[in-house]
């Protein structure tokens, strides 16, 4: 088996699939030395140090209220809200709920390194999530993500129901999934599943508790690219010069619009994407 970094080499199946429109399954593809185990997740719960926004609890798309999940703790003499209530979450999991760990790249060194590798290879912002799901249960209803998805099974097995990808799927996530046609894929430990942007899916743990990691690869939205363009324009110093001789707000606006249009002829598209991605990664704390 390979590391995920090995699977990101030029010409690899995963690199090629990124620009394709069909899901990809790689069997027994990823070595599991380094990612968390179920025992690590249980220790995190028992340690009571998990805090929002780093975890959520879901069952068939429904989330319990905060009062059913959270506790207040005293930290350095100050009462702090938002910590996990270990006993309460344990009861939720015993009743079939899924524990979703968010922004895992912020606190797990190995998955942070993998996340950094994905950021270095793909023109997208990568984020990592862990899903702990009891046997026979699912955390979410059929849905589509506003991103491409790489899922790696770490422990247990999970049955994925894949649905058609719309020709022009919206950038945002949603539940508007056509479930009339489906493809079923079962992932075992070490298996990798790649989903193109907008592919509808739902996943159920089958015969035992399942743990898998998902990396979402979100490309810059049109609004993010426009903002990056404006940021480039402002950084160039041209706005101050363009409006310098204006005699009224209207003439200043006209001069700025004309200069903004003219500026585009010299903007490099790849640099614009890089700026948008750098802004997104800085905002979300990615490296």
Describe the structure.
This protein is α+β, with helices and mostly antiparallel strands and 287 residues long. The chain contains 8 helices and 12 strands. The model has no long low-confidence stretch (mean pLDDT 91).
In short:
The chain is α+β, with helices and mostly antiparallel strands and 287 residues long.
Amino-to-carboxy terminus distance? 27 Å
* Strand runs, count: 12
Shape: globular
Count, helices:
8
How do the strands of the widest beta sheet line up side by side?
1-10-7-12-6-5-2
Radius of gyration: 22 Å
The arrangement of helices and strands along the chain is: HEHEEEHEHEEEEEEEHHHH
* Helical coverage, percent range: 25-40%
- Please summarize the sheet with the most strands: 7 strands, antiparallel
Let me know the average pLDDT: 91
Class from secondary-structure proportions: alpha+beta
Unreliably modeled segments = none
**Beta-strand content bin:** 15-25%
Key terms for this structure?
287 residues; seven-stranded antiparallel sheet; globular
Secondary-structure map:
Layout: H1 13-17, E1 24-26, H2 38-47, E2 55-58, E3 70-75, E4 78-84, H3 86-94, E5 98-101, H4 109-121, E6 125-133, E7 148-155, E8 158-163, E9 182-187, E10 192-195, E11 201-205, E12 210-218, H5 222-235, H6 238-242, H7 249-263, H8 269-284
């Amino acid at each position: 088996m390979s590391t995920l970094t090995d699977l990101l080499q030029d010409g690899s199946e995963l690199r090629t699939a990124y620009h394709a429109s069909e899901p990809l399954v790689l069997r027994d593809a990823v070595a599991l030395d380094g990612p968390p185990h179920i025992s690590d997740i249980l220790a995190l719960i028992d340690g009571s140090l998990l805090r929002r926004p780093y975890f959520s609890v879901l069952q068939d798309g429904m989330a319990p209220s905060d009062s059913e999940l959270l506790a207040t703790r005293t930290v350095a003499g100050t009462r702090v809200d938002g910590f996990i209530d270990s006993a309460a979450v344990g009861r939720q999991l015993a009743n079939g709920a899924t524990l979703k760990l968010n922004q895992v790249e912020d606190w797990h060194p190995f998955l942070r390194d993998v996340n950094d590798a994905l950021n270095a290879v793909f023109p997208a912002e990568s984020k990592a999530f862990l899903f702990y799901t009891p046997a026979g249960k699912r955390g979410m209803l059929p849905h589509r993500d506003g991103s491409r998805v790489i899922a790696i099974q770490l422990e247990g097995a999970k049955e994925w129901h894949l649905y058609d990808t719309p020709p022009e799927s919206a950038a945002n996530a949603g539940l508007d999934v056509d479930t009339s046609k489906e493809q079923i894929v079962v992932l075992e430990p070490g298996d990798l599943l790649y989903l193109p942007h907008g592919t509808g899916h739902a996943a159920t743990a089958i015969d035992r508790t399942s743990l898998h990691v998902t990396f979402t690869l979100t490309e810059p939205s049109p609004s993010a690219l426009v903002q990056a363009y404006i940021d480039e324009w402002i950084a160039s110093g041209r706005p101050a010069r363009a409006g310098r001789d204006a005699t009224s707000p209207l003439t200043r606006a006209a001069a700025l619009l004309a200069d903004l249009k003219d500026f585009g002829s010299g903007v490099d598209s790849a640099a614009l994407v890089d700026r948008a991605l750098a802004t997104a990664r800085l905002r979300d704390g990615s490296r």
